[in-house]
Design brief:
17 strands, 476 residues, Arc Repressor Mutant, subunit A, Aspartate Aminotransferase, domain 1, 4-stranded antiparallel beta sheet, alpha/beta
Length: 476
């Protein structure tokens, strides 16, 4: 490596070299593990004697700043981590810091917790079914597009070809009424929620959402300073009549209520749209996994019924494809779209262009629809097996909540079942099941389990549920 050393005069050269090297190490310009030039080479570069360099290196080694490795050379030693006692912090004059610091960010499984052998974690798709070969070809196509693309900037709203592909796909799959001009490409559905909240929520803005509901959405609105109202749900979905006056934003999951799973009835959907029109409120429709339906006629998205530009439709490819893609989208009313595009541009310029080109190609060549059909059959078999067990030997303790879409279902616990203890007991036998309790906020908790079937193989379901049954018998 090249060192920037400046020696003045011909006196005290070892001291000068020592001080400059020490300063570079202390400042971080010479990072831990950096190899220094051999004494002979550095002496030649500086025009000084090798003895002078060796003396400076020796002093730095004595100070534990350098260490020699036989046969390899001299390296900067690892530094002690900065301790809290080493600094005198000054309180920052930012009232919003605590509002963000107290927000919870983990959903379902702890980030530090290893997955169980048999894992019913929700929201995780079947990675083993992902068509990696087709995606690889689409990424190669994206690289060729990048070579030919001369513009230095890309639209914050998303590449036109991907927005066009998304508009066609969701019109066919979910009945969403939109064109490419209405679509905003985001880094996952969570960024779509963030952008909508950024442009609509100020401290004190009244926001209504389902209870139980999606914790990251709740935490996001609270971090923005929202006056959050938790609205209970019943068998038909959100209890619309309980939405408070003055509400400006309503967050719902009408096609597959998260986490319980029941769909919002047609009557309730019309009531929700009427209430939003009365309030002048925007509805965020989070349609996170409803391309997978198993029974009954397919219900279109709530957005399809909207006649007044009151619904922001949010979707994601993290559930249908891979969570690692981090690509989602929002279909927004014009005024909200313009503001959200500005917020998107200011926050991250645009979503990754290579992945946008690849996804546009992936959808256009029919890979997405084929993948959804293939996964639908796999998820349906897993779902049927779980339901069969819930209706047979697990019936004394658990009962499934009726649901017709997605790739998780919820099971409510019978009175007397200690769900939190059950979760701990099953964890000991390498089965991951998850309590519904963290999804409740103000309304009383309905004890039960959220059981995802995206991450568990069909042949693993019975051995896993055998262990759950044994744990329930132990509790009884």
């Amino acid at each position: 490596m090249e060192l920037h050393i400046r020696l003045e005069g011909r006196k005290g050269l070892a001291e000068q070299l020592y001080q400059q090297l020490r300063s570079a190490i202390d400042s971080g310009h010479l990072a831990a593990g950096t190899q220094l030039p051999p004494t002979r080479l550095l002496a030649e570069q500086l025009g000084i004697s090798r003895k002078t360099v060796a003396e400076a290196y020796s002093r730095l080694t004595y100070d534990n700043l350098l260490s020699g490795v036989v046969g390899r050379g001299t390296f900067v030693s690892p530094r002690r981590a900065l301790q809290a006692s080493d600094v005198e912090p000054i309180a920052l004059a930012a009232n919003s810091l605590e509002r963000w610091q107290q927000r919870a960010t983990v959903l379902g499984r702890s980030a530090l917790e290893a997955p169980s052998r048999y894992d019913f974690v929700g929201g995780v798709s079947a990675k083993s079914q992902f068509p990696f070969d087709q995606w690889r070809a689409c990424m190669q196509y994206a690289l060729r597009c990048s070579q030919r693309h001369s513009e230095r900037q890309f639209p914050a709203q998303g590449l036109p070809e991907l927005r066009e592909a998304i508009a066609h796909h969701i019109a066919f799959a979910r009945g969403v009424h939109c064109s490419a001009a209405d679509v905003l490409v985001c880094n996952g559905a969570q960024q779509a929620l963030d952008l909508i909240a950024r442009v609509l929520v100020e401290p004190g803005t009244r926001v209504a959402m389902e209870d139980p509901g999606y914790p990251p959405a709740r935490q996001l609105f609270l971090a923005m300073g929202a006056d959050l109202q938790s609205v209970p749900v019943d068998d038909e979905g959100l209890c619309v009549e309980q939405i408070a006056d003055g509400t400006q934003l309503i967050y719902v999951t009408p096609s597959h209520q998260f986490p319980l799973g029941m769909p919002m009835s047609e009557r309730r959907r019309h009531a929700l749209l009427a209430r939003a029109a009365e309030l002048g409120a925007l509805i965020i429709e989070d349609d996170y996994d409803c391309e997978f339906r198993y029974q009954g006629p397919a219900s279109d998205a709530l957005q399809r019924l909207d006649r007044h530009g009151l619904v922001a439709y949010v979707g994601t490819f993290s559930k249908t494809l891979l969570s690692e893609l981090r690509l989602g989208y929002a279909v927004l009313p014009p005024s909200v779209l313009r503001a959200a595009c500005v917020a998107k541009h200011l926050s991250d310029w645009h979503s990754p262009s290579l992945q946008q080109w690849a996804l546009a190609r992936f959808i256009g060549e029919g890979h997405l629809n084929r993948h959804i059909r293939r996964c639908h059959d796999i998820y349906a078999a897993r779902r049927e097996r779980i339901l069969a067990r819930l209706e047979s030997d697990l019936a004394p303790w658990l009962s499934a909540v009726p649901a017709s879409a997605g790739f998780h279902l919820s099971a409510l616990a019978a009175p007397g079942v200690d769900v939190e203890l059950l979760v701990r007991l099953t964890r000991r036998v390498e089965v991951g099941v998850y309590s519904l309790a963290p999804f409740f906020n103000d309304v009383p908790v309905r004890p039960g389990l959220l059981m995802g079937f995206g991450a568990i193989e069909r042949l693993d379901i019975d051995p896993a549920l055998d262990r759950v049954r044994d744990a329930l018998q132990q509790l009884s």
